[in-house]
Amino acid sequence: FLLPAPLCLLTLLLPPLGLGVLISPAEPISQAYSLALYMQKNTSTLLQTYLQCQGSPFSDPGFSAPELQLSSLPPAAVSFKTWHALNDRERLSCAQGAFLALTQHLQLVGDDQSDLNPGSPILLAQLGAARLRAQGLLGNMAAIMTALGLPIPPEEDTLGLVPFGASAFERKCRGYVVTREYGHWTDRAVRDLALLKAKYPG
Amino acid sequence: MMDISLCLKRPSRMGDSKRMRMTSNFQWLLLTVLLLYLMNQVNSQKKRTPRDLKCITNNLQVWDCSWRAPSGAGHGAAYEVCFENGSHSCYRLEKNIKLPALLPGDHEITINPLHDFGNFISKFTLNEKNVSLIPDAPEILDLSADFSTSTLHLKWNDKGSVFPHHSNVIWEIKVLRKKNMEIVKLVTHNTTLNGRDTVHHWSWISDMPLECATHYVGIRCYIDDPQFSGRKEWSDWSPLKNISWSPDSQTKVFPQDRVLLVGSDITVCCVTQEKVLSAQIGSTYCPLIHLDGKNVAIKIRNISASESSGTNVVFSVEDNMFGTVIFAGYPPDIPQKLNCETYDLKEIICTWNPGRPTFLVGPRNTSYTLFESFSGKYVRFKRVELPTNESYQLFFQMLPNQEIYNFTLNARNPLGQSESTLLVNITEKVHPHIPTSVKVKDISSTAVTLSWHLPGSFAKIKLLCQIEINKTNSIHELRNVTMRGIENSSYLAALDKLNPYTIYTFRIRCCTDPFWKWSKWSNEKQYLTTEAIPSKGPDTWREWSSDGKNLIIYWKPLPINEANGKILSYNVSCSSDEETQSLSEIPDPQHKAEIQLDKNDYIISVVAKNSVGSSPPSKIASMEIPNDDLKIEQAVRMGNGILLTWNYDPNVTCDYVIKWCNSSRSEPCLMDWKKVPSNSTETIIESDQFRPGVRYNFFVYGCRNQGYQLLRSIIGYVEELAPVVAPNFTVEDTSADSILVKWEEIPVEELRGFLRGYLFYFEKGERDTSKMRVLESGRSDIKVKNITDISQKTLRIADLQGKTSYHLVLRAYTDGGMGPEKSMFVVTKENSVGLIIAILIPVAVAVIVGVVTSILCYRKREWEVIRLWKSLQGWKDRAVLVELACLGRGRSLPRSSGRRSCCSRPDVPKELDPWFQAPPSLQPYIQREEGALPPGCQGGLWLAWPVSRVHRWSSRVAQQKFYSRATSTSTT
């Protein structure tokens, strides 16, 4: 499957097929897998661009703050045993929930950065692109769940009222956690989809 | 201290003591003891009276006086206190007395203890000067804090109502920090008491966020009443009040999101329950200042401007990080280059430059408000996301009937504000829009109407528009048009003095009166003006055909500025006195016509026609005016072209025509012609057709009444080149010592320049030998003849050797260089006279030798001597003989006259005369015989030689002499 990346993205952003039509899960899995792979290529760039725009110590080489977490964003880290024991429904629901939260958080981070870094159009564009891709992956996952006959979890407002009074430092940290977790979740999605791809060959 | 006097009611016992008379020493001792006793008595009496009366006041209305009670007086002892204040008043009281403030001056006050162990009364003089004014400690009404700005607000009451008159009050406020109460601020604050209770406020911005540590505040006062002459003292400190922040369990850093001026100092603290390991601003670590508990702070001095997302301050604990962001920047600069103008008198556009960057972006960016004071209206500038140094702009809707606008542009950001003002009469600041919809309409072939649209409410002002007229290959022309402005309409302008059938490009820009700014130039509008009749007839020439029967008429196409349109055709006619003959119409691309004519005088006329009409005719006579006095001259290009000059000729009335052609072309010879005004005497002929090395003929004609006379005929080259061929030459005649060579002319085409001469080389040489090489002028064996007379076509080469092969070479040259060479080998004929001479000479020589020999033999005496010589036996006899021989000839023997002194010999060159040179083989004889001969007779020694030897030697020398002569003859 060697479509050029933008064309591939366009294809994958198409809405999932209507319910009730039973199709083979191989195709949506393959599409989602391709998109996840494409996303994976850009996640480290997004994180680096993001950190560069936040000033020292965020922009210092080798900056890492694994202790920073967001309660509204589920962490991607999971023990291999637990991850491997997940069934299709759990696996897809976890990813679905995470990318739903990520799309909302990426929107929030985009707004935050419009205030903090209005002069960095590249960062704002990368955040916007990441959000669109996360939405695209959500659509693909919904298609897989439909194909597998699994119920699609309802969309939730993961952010709630919490984030609006955040200080600039909290916003920077929040953005860091979101862009970092976006990368982690994309990595995990690639693994998830590879597993599903092996399980449901075309 | 107060003056105290004691009055003893008991009588003194001094009289008794005076009566004691003792001896002097004893008396003195007794006196001393007595004095000590008396003083003790006095002191004991003092201790038994009220003393140390002190009066203070805290409100200037009541004096509170107290005294020290006498010793022995128990608690609750009563006193009678009397004083004079207009009237005598006495009070019975226990401890102290509150007096109404007494009038200025001394007042006596007596205090009489009402107890029974003595009757001591204390008398004091009381004056206001002795009273201390000590106000009550102030009471803090309220201490509050604005944590966001780290500001403390203090509120207290001055209780001014208790003071009788206005006084100045100095308040001293202290701020203490942390539990160990370090003083961080001590400040005085001045107010006045105005007879009423007044609540005062004091605010203080802490350098450390108030959340970082508990802050305590106390206050005291000092009343500086100018009318009070007593001592004034500070009040006690009020009870301290404190402000503290009740932290929740979470760690927090203060202040958050603070906007600061670049270069200022700030303290940032971390309120935490965990141990803070380090703190850093950006990438710089800072020393920790420990506060209460585990709270820490850092002090940042002289902060530098932040980048867009602010400067991060981060505190690190064991497994986490906490932080805040500081935005360091500048307050807005005064808006620079504020300028307000209008494009259309409907809307005002104000532009400005923000000046120094503030380094603050996003919500902290500078906001601008443009306020107009006459109308009270304002507009706000929307935040630009990208901070730039470029111009900012705001639009302000113009108000009806308002021309003068007073604008104030206010710039504001969290660090401050600034403003710029501009008073403007907007009718003088009109910068019109770019004119649009430019259209052109014909009026005539030389005039058009130009119309354009200019949006704007210009009804009350005058417009000045500038029209740029561009013509191909011509400088552009600007014309100004002034017009009254109209409301949103099109404008018209007529343009005359244009050329017919010409492509013009128009564009327009406008400004208003008074001038402020030109609009941008409108788009260009291209327009072709209509045609007009051609203004001139074509430039005409004529040539007779080679057979002389036809006249060929040539004309040049009219230049566009004379054609005034597209030339469609030409009419050619020829007229004589009797008749006029017209040829059929000749369509345009053809510029030549041929008419069969006799040799009578005809006038040929040519007319050019376009769609509008015909040009005036160009006329030329068919016949040339004869000129017998003609010479052919030469000319070569000078600079850009060939310069032709002629003398001024008053008979030439119309013009001069210079015609030229390639000289090698067949008749009629015409490449081109050029007309020159009749007042000229020179012209330069230039043409792209001219080629180097080609001969052209130039003919200068003068015009008289349409007839032309040939004035000069010139041949010329634009550049001379070397000939391409050598002249063909042949040998016409050969003799034993000469050759006659003849050559032909080189054709003009191959000559490629004016012939300047020939070079003829000749040398001995044969074909196919090494001498077949390039002739070099420097070689001595080559003879060169330069023939500069170009009419010469033969050459005789003389003084050659017979029956010898000669190599002949001929080449021609021009100013452009040498042509190639042509060579030939010729052998001269045999020479018969020479052969005869060669036979006769040896014969003649032999005869001459015979004759000479005979003469020599005939000379007898010499022969006899020789014979005698032979007969002599010894050397001595021979010497005598020599002597005799000399004497016999009648001469004395010179001593040093050389070998020829005795017998002279014919004069022959010394080097060729072997007789005078004894061969080396004979030297021993000579030396030996010299020694034997008498001195003075050495010259005759050659005679004393054995004849046999002489003969052999002389014959060998003669042989050498012959060969040598033969050799020299052959070499000469």
Automatic annotation (TrEMBL), chain A:
Ranges that cross the membrane: none
Q: Which GO terms describe its cellular component?
A: extracellular space
- A UniProt-annotated Pfam family: PRF
Point out the coiled-coil segments of this chain. none
Question: Signal sequence span per UniProt?
Answer: 1-20
UniProt keywords (A-Z) are: Cytokine, Developmental protein, Glycoprotein, Secreted, Signal
Q: Does the keyword ATP-binding apply?
A: no
**Keyword flag Cytoplasm:** no
The molecular function GO annotations come to: cytokine activity
Localization per Swiss-Prot or TrEMBL: Secreted
Q: Which InterPro entries does its entry note?
A: 4_helix_cytokine-like_core, PRF/CT
Q: Which BP terms in the Gene Ontology apply to this protein?
A: cell surface receptor signaling pathway
Name the Gene3D superfamilies on file. Answer: 1.20.1250.10
Main location class = secreted
Please report which protein family the annotation says this sequence is part of.
Belongs to the IL-6 superfamily.
Protein name as it appears in the record:
Cardiotrophin-2
Automatic annotation (TrEMBL), chain B:
Q: Could you name the domain of life of the organism this protein comes from?
A: Eukaryota
Per the record, membrane topology reads: Single-pass type I membrane protein
Q: Which UniProt keywords apply?
A: Disulfide bond, Glycoprotein, Membrane, Receptor, Repeat, Signal, Transmembrane, Transmembrane helix
Q: Where is the signal peptide?
A: 1-44
Please verify whether the record's keywords include rRNA-binding: no
Principal subcellular localization = membrane
Which residues belong to any copy of the Fibronectin type-III domain?
A: 334-433, 434-533, 537-628, 723-832
A Pfam family per the record: LIFR_N
Give me the gene this protein comes from: LIFR
Q: What is this protein called?
A: Leukemia inhibitory factor receptor isoform X2
Query: What PANTHER family does this protein map onto?
Result: INTERLEUKIN-12 RECEPTOR SUBUNIT BETA-2 (PTHR48423:SF2), INTERLEUKIN-27 RECEPTOR SUBUNIT ALPHA (PTHR48423)
**Segments crossing the lipid bilayer:** 833-858
Where is this gene product found?
Membrane
- Record carries keyword Cell inner membrane: no
Q: Which InterPro entries does the record cross-reference, listed alphabetically? A: FN3_dom (IPR003961), FN3_sf (IPR036116), Hematopoietin_rcpt_Gp130_CS (IPR003529), Ig-like_fold (IPR013783), LIF-R-like_Ig-like (IPR048497), LIFR_D2 (IPR040817), LIFR_N (IPR040901), Type1_Cytokine_Rcpt_Type2 (IPR052672)
